[in-house]
Design a protein that fits this description.
210 residues; alpha+beta; Yope Regulator, Chain: A; DNA polymerase, domain 1; 2 domains; 9 helices; elongated; TfoX_N; TfoX_C; TfoX-like_gammaprotbact; Competence protein TfoX
Length: 210
């Protein structure tokens, strides 16, 4: 068994034709991704490919075992399957299976994006999704087009208890940040705007945005 860093280097060399492969630490191992689409993971020095149609025959015959992840002492089988030494000795076949795993992951990602709801964005929940719907913001596309500030003004108009944390949450949902991880410059800009909005400037800006 190789260590995980060596296996990462070997995987990147062997699968280079897939594109630029980025390796990031994840769950004590590494994830491998092309253009931010994860198609494989490395755990305890072993490579596991994401499940796809090309891998199914190997799963059925038992030559590719699933990755087992222990969560609170309970073993959970993940949809990633082990690349054994026999496959490493067949670089063309390994590349073909990896291409299948990447394409399947890309299709899944596209489907998720098409079906994405407001509640699925960072910081969002069903309650906030319902509140936004009440003010006419019914989709992720509409939220992004409306923007965090105008969306907040619409919410504030019907709910006086809406505060700055909701503004941060909306901005994070649109830009892909957890609200606590928003860049400091953006937080300060939003805080200044929030203070002006609460001091009466918000009414003027609201009319200009409408």
């Amino acid at each position: 068994m190789q260590n995980s860093k060596q296996r990462v280097e070997q995987s990147i060399r062997s699968l280079a034709s897939l594109g630029k492969i980025d390796a990031r630490t994840q769950f004590g191992g590494y994830s491998l991704a092309v253009n931010k689409v994860v198609f494989a993971v490395i755990a305890e020095g072993e490579l596991y490919l994401r499940a796809c149609e090309q891998i199914q025959p190997y799963i059925i015959e038992g030559s590719m075992a699933p990755l087992i992840f222990n969560k609170r002492g309970m073993p959970i089988s993940l949809a990633y399957y082990h690349v054994n030494e026999a496959l490493w000795q067949q670089p063309e076949k390994l590349l073909l299976l990896s291409q299948g795993a990447l394409k399947h992951a890309q299709r899944e990602g596209k489907t998720r994006r098409l079906n994405l709801r407001v509640k699925d964005l960072p910081n969002m929940c069903v309650r906030l999704e319902m509140l936004l719907r009440q003010v006419g913001i019914c989709s992720v596309k509409m939220l992004r087009e409306t923007g965090a500030r105008r969306s907040w003004l619409k919410l504030k108009a019907v709910n006086k208890n809406i505060g700055i944390n909701t503004l941060f949450a909306l901005e994070g949902a649109i830009s892909g940040y957890h609200r606590a991880a928003l860049p400091v410059a953006i937080q300060e800009e939003l805080r200044d705007w929030f203070n002006h909005a609460n001091n009466g400037a918000g009414k003027r800006e609201h009319s200009e945005l409408e």
